[in-house]
Structures are given as C-alpha cells and as structure tokens.
From TrEMBL:
The chain crosses the membrane at residues 15-35, 70-91, 190-213. One of its GO terms (biological process) is nervous system development. The ER translocon complex consists of channel-forming core components SEC61A1, SEC61B and SEC61G and different auxiliary components such as SEC62 and SEC63. This is Translocation protein SEC63 homolog. The keyword Phosphoprotein applies. One of its GO terms (molecular function) is RNA binding. CDD domains: DnaJ. It comes from Gadus morhua.
Amino acid sequence: MAGQQFQYDDSGNTFFYFLTSFVGLIVIPATYYLWPRDQNAEQLRLKSLRRVHGRCLWYRLRLMKSQQSIVPTLKKAALLFGWVVFLLLAYKVSKLDREYQEYNPYEVLHLDPGATTSEIKKQYHLLSKKFHPDKGGDEAAFMMITKAYAALTNEQTKKNWELYGDPDGPRATNFGIALPAWIVDQKNSMLVLLVYGLAFMVILPVVVGTWWYRSIRYSGDQILINTTQLFMHFMYKTPNMNMKRLAMVLTAAFEFDPRSNKEATIRPTDNIEVPQLIRELGNINVKKKEPPFCYPYSLKARVLVLAHLSRMEISEDLEEDQRFAVRKSPALLQEMVNVGCQLTMMANSRGGFHAPRLVSIENCMKLTQMIVQGLQETKSPLLQLPHFDEEHLRYCVSKKYKVRSLQDLVSLKDSERRSMLRFLVEEKYDEVISVLGSFPHIAMETKLQVLDDEDSNNITAGSIVTVTVTLTRKRMAVSMTFIQKQSQKGLRTFDSDPWTNCFSYWYEHWENTLLQKLCFLLCTIYMQRRSLNSAPRYPPPPPLQDAVAVPKEDDEEGSDKGSESDEAEANKDSPSERDEESDKQSDTEVDEIEWEALQQSIQRREKALLETKSKVTHPVYSLYYPDEKQEWWWLYIADRRDQALVSMPYHVCTLKDTEEVELKFPAPSKTGNYQYSVILRSDSYLGLDQIKPLKLEVHEAKAVLDNHPQWDIPETEEEDEEQEDSDGIEESEDDDEDND
C-alpha cells in the first residue's frame, strides 16, 4: 500500500499471543477427550462381569491393574498444570492490551473531554511544574504532557489526532514474528542459529528416520514384514500343514526374537527351566535342525505355547514370558490365515504351484481357539467351563447321558443336567450354568443369488454368485429356556399342523409304552424335515388381484348396440382375457417388489461401507487367556470334497446381535450340481463351529445375441429414412440454385 510504513515490534509481545493460542489449542481438546470423567466406570464394568468372568485370568489381571493404576491421577495433574499455564498466559496478554489502546490527550492531562482552552493551559502549567526534568521530574512523563498539550492547542497536531488518532500523524504498522525479544536480539544471533541447526538438521532427521525405520518393518496389522514372509515361505513349502508343524511355524515368528522385538526377553534361567519343561511335555521335535525352528527364541516360545495348551504350572518368570507369547499368537495366526488366502488367490489366478490345502487354513483357526481356551485339540469342549476336570468327564460321557459337547449339555432338562453334575455343589453348579448361558448361539441363514442379473435365481456358468449370510447371535441361556419350556409343555407346543396334532394325540394315548417312544421319534424326524422345508428359499409372490369387475350396462343401451359391440363386450369379459390381465398385473407387481428389494440391498451395502462399527462385541469366557478377548468369527465357503476354498474367509468382528455378510465367488465353468459348505468358525470357543450345506445348480449361460430385437429397423422405416434423406438433399440443391 502506497505511503504505508512498517515498524518491527521489538517488544516481544506478539510471542505471548502466539504462545497463549498454542497452549489453548492443546489444553481445551485434551481436557475434553482425556479428562477421566468417571474413575469408577471400569470398576463398575468389571463388577457387572464378575458373576460370569470372575475366574478368568484376564479378569483377575485387569482387576489388579485397575486397582493399582495411577494413570487417571497423572492425567488430571497434567491437565490442571496445562490450565494453570494457559490462565497465566491469558493474564499476561490482558496486561499487554494497555499498550495498544487509542491515544487520548485528555487522559494524559487528567481532564474531562470538552475542557476549555483556559482549563487546558492551567492544567498543563501545573503538570509541567511537577514533571519538569529541571525540577527533578520524569522526563518521559513530561514529554507525554507536552505532546498532549500540543494535540489540544495546536491546529495541525489537533487535526492529526482527530484524523489518525496520533498527534504526530499516521502511525507505522507494527509487526512481529511471534518470538520472544531475546531471540531476535543481535547479541544472541549465534546461539539462536546453533539451536535452529541442532533442531532442524539433527533432531528432526533422527526422529523422522527412526519412525520411518520402525514403520516399514510392520504391516497394516502391526505384524513384522519378516514374519509375514516367513509364514508365506512355509505355507508355500508345506501346503498340507498339520497341527504340530503349524505350532512350530507360529513360534518361529520374529515377534518372539529379542533382536527384532524388544518386548521378547531371553533370561539366564531359561537354560535350566526350558529343558525341564521339554522333558515334561515329551516329543516336541527338539532335535529338528531346520532353521529357524532350532533357534533358542523359537524353541522357548514353542515350549511356552505347548505348556499353555497343556495347562501346566510354570515359574513366575516363565509365566510372564508365556503370557506375552499367548497374547501375540491370535494376531499371528490371523496373519497366517491371510497369507493362506493370498497364496490361494495367486494359485487360482496364475497357476504353477499348489495352493495351501483347506485343512491348513482351518488348522490355523482351530489353533486360535485352542490358544484362547488353553486346551489341546483332543480335549473335550466341556473343559472350557469352570470346575470341570478330566475326571468329571466320565459322568458326562456315560451311556445314560452321552454328553460330549456344549450343545448336548444345553439340550438336557434341568433335572437331568443337575443329576449328571451331582459332583458340583449348588454354588459351583449355578456358576457353571451362568457361564454356559453366556456362551454364544448363532443362527445362520443363507440366501443364494446372482446380483445385477435379469434372473437373479438362475446361476449360469462363470457368473458371480453372491451368498448373503445373516448371522443372529443369542445367548445359550435363551436356548436352555426354550428347551425347558418345550419339555414342560410336551408335544402340544409344536403348532397347529395336522400331523403334529396327530402325533401329539397318540403320544398322550400311548403313555408309558414302547409305542410312545416310537411316536416321539417319528414326530422328531417329521419336525426336522418340516423345519428344513418350511422356510421358503425365495419370498412367495404376492397374491393376485381380482379382475376388475365390469359394470353391467342398461338393457336399453344394450338393445341399441349392434352385434359388434356385443362381441367386443363378450371378448372383454372372457375368462382368458381376465387371466392375461391379472398375470400381467402380477408380473408387474413382482418386478416392482424385486426392484425395491434390489434398491434396498444396494442402499444397505452403501450404508454398511460408510458406517464404522465398533469391534467390541462380547467378552470371551477364557480361563487362561491373559487379555480380554472379544468374540470374533470366520465365515467362508469351502468345497470339502476337493479341500479347497471357494470364497476367502471373512473375519466377522462386529457381530453383537445381527450381522449380514455377503460372500462372492465365481460359479464353476461347467454345468451341473455342486455341493459346497458355508462354514462359520469361532476364533475363541471350541465346539461352536457351524457347517451348513450349500447346493449349487449351474446352468449353461445364455448365448450372446448378435442382433437384438430392439436393434432391428423395419424395412419400411429404412425406406422412409432414405426418402427423407433424398428429399433433404434435393431441397438443399434447390436452395443453392435460388441463391445463385
């Protein structure tokens, strides 16, 4: 801007404005997000979980950690200190505002605005005698008094004050760089240069380089890249991997190597304690010299994981290392599942090598369940419950009860269950029932279709098949209550189906006889068959609307019409015409319903993509896992006959009540009937996996039409177009001649 002057603000006041704003931008959001709103929230949550999870290792560790934690106190102290600094800076800035107030000569002379000239002169003489330097007064104050007197008496200075707010005329614009005054002082220039060079040329490159070096070592799931490469090598080398080999590959991960991970430790006492555990465990392939299985860190991690699966007692030092290994294992096994899926996709697309067998990927999932529950593969799933030991299983597997799974235990009546668990006192029995009731029960429904196709129910060779799986989670306590009600009401609780009513009648008629048992068996088989066929595969079409009634015409109008009108009316009211119209209406309504369903599914998928769900679902009951684990699941489609994956496993991490998952895969290139399986596996519980058959009937794809009917143009239309073109040419020639 022309004529504008600039002057550097060397007072350093701008720095306090910057510092106050900077501290405020940190303190205010930090207080909102980090202030401990309720220190007892974690205690209350743990108290609500105590009845079910009170015996879990993770619960006891979390309870001890919450009692000994001083983190909330430190957070409060840090935030309060930040607020004190912020308020002090704000107070400092408020004092600096006096320097930027508008100049007022009346205030300098201690006069009221509008004072007369005589009053101004009189006040000036009084203040001059008081502050004159020759009489020992303040020189700066005397200069301000003189300037104020001139601003009120001199015409030019008074005009400058009225126009620009300063008797000296337009003031220069002050600017600063938000730094304290001592930094911009010439005496400290070398020190400032040294500090800047150290900060931007040494410290900043070191920090960025360290962060970059650490970040490139990990994948997106916080798994070391070297570990992922190790898993890929051994899964490619051993497509069919058994459980023992899988445990060796898992414990060879670089997360357990102290050179790659500082959390892993090697203790001097390992040379004594680890060999003792090896002798107690037995054959764990210690003599295998294949690297890295023979390395000390891998051998130690393998021994600790196997000791965890055997539920062996170890020393406190090894117990800490064991918790670290067990805590890392589920994420590493998930990475192995991902690696197996990548190799499968590469084998399907490129060929040239064998993809990992289905059993290898499923063994990774099984090993995750085993590690979370601390059980070996051959052990009973009932050992997941509290107060159950090996010696108690003989009561369950006896000929009278034949309980071998959690589902068998749930299906028993209360009286039978209490009789079987008679070795438990009442308090322990109630705890077992509470834990059993908290276990998940998943209802799985599947729907097979081909999206974006005219006939979504017709599967053709090479088409993309979409299997929509709806998962509904309930607690096993709901199933136990339902079974108890069924046992109390008997067969009358089925429904009003005539066959079930017949079975119910003969069941009560043949009481306490062999025929009653036969009737119950037949009714059970019938109900199972009917339950499989009761749910329609596709929604039924809407009911057809009745034909629109044609009003009768008066006799006089009918007599006036001729034979042609009578014939037309007869044709209009004929049954065949009404059926055709009703069929057209029904087809139109079905198309509209299918279109609305398609639009709703598209909107639902778009909403699911934009919506971020929490991965906190339900805490897992685990007696020996050191961390709180959430219920997650694997869902995939497999061909169990060929031992191959059909669709890649989808990790369901957000199933709280209901979840809808879409699995897509290409249909086989050959026509025929195929038998696949939709498999749901838990990553936390043993014995809760589900397998549902999926029948696929592949038809031959329709031939591509070279000439679609809508592309055909009748000959008459072609002749008309040619005639129009010729007429247009003739008209243009005539116009040209006229112009000439």
